[in-house]
Amino acid sequence: MERSTTGEAEMEVDDVECSSKTAINQWSLVKPFGGCQPPKQRSLHASIVVGDCLYIFGGYDGSSRVNDFYKFSFKASKWSQIHPAGSSPTARDRHVVVSYADKIYIFAGYDGNNRVNDFWQYDTEHEVWTTVDPALGNPPTPRHSHSGVEYDGSMYIFAGYDGNYRSDFHRYNFQQRKWSIVPVKGSVPKARYRTSAVAYKNRMLVVGGHDGAKHLNDFYQFNFDTLEWSLVETTGQVPPPSPRDSHSAVICGDSMYLFGGSTGSARNDLYAFSFETEQWTEVRSAPAGTKNSNVPCPRFCHTCDVYNNSLYVFGGYDGQQRLNDFWQFKLATEVNIDIPSSSLVADLREFLNDAKLSDVTFLVEGKPVYAHKLLCMRCSYFRAMFEGQMREARAA
């Protein structure tokens, strides 16, 4: 079950500068500095934040799969295309990306003709791709539309489509460089693809997807310590997000945020699940017609990442055309406090030989020198003089 269209019209992006003081719960378009070009329109790509940069690889541009590679620097607010030396992953979409030890890992996907299960590593420091040897263990079958997370030095791959809808669960240990099938127990989620997966503390959370017949909105957790699947218990009055696939989910603080997806038509709703209250809430932005009321158009097959308490959504498909707009949703206001440099030394210097507040006077060659018994804290000689039985202890 694959969705693609051709002959897409070029989208016009209304550039709106993203202010560093954007208020909480408001969307704004990110406008890069310097006129640098963002990645072209695409869907079914993969992205990840490493350090202070967002990396985007591959996807489908409406006519073909691509393997271009871009980086957005949050500090410089600038896009740049990466041209690594040597070989690179082939063009593909519906792949998975994770990061470990400042390296980016891409696994599997669809190249336009075949499902693949090759495994690539990108070194962000040396800017080079290398293949990861898949020979050890039992790697997943060639597939696309799977999901994956990194936890405790391993990459976990769940579900996807390999000619059949899957619910299998695989682990790749980065230190051992070995694949293994995770021996799970409990209430295993039904087979699906285009689900979301995030890691929170010692759990992986999976929401929704498509089982080949219908959209899903079931909510599962996998405990990495007990290797057990279970349904997530929720409370509160707000119902969970409607059944959907091709959405995005991310973790920020003690909440999971879910944006967009397809319910049969594109969506642009935003939900939060609090792990503290175990409740879903729909996160609404500023009302239409008010200042900063812009919102991303409905979409699916986009990406969403978290950086510095903000969500960043790039691209996707709105049901008619591929997109390359770049949106920020701030989850917490920035508090800018101007902390002055310390004036302690200068303030204490003002008391030097000043009669004001002085509690002891030294007569040096007949001249008074005003001081403070606080000097006992720094000098054992004067501490003995003022705290002992000497007459100076009773005189000023």
From TrEMBL:
Pfam families: BTB, Kelch_1, Kelch_KLHDC2_KLHL20_DRC7. Residues 358-396 form the BTB domain. Signal peptide: none annotated. SMART domains: Kelch. GO terms for cellular component: Golgi apparatus. Keywords: Kelch repeat, Repeat. This is Lztr1 protein. It comes from Symbiodinium pilosum (Dinoflagellate). The lineage of its organism: Eukaryota, Sar, Alveolata, Dinophyceae, Suessiales.
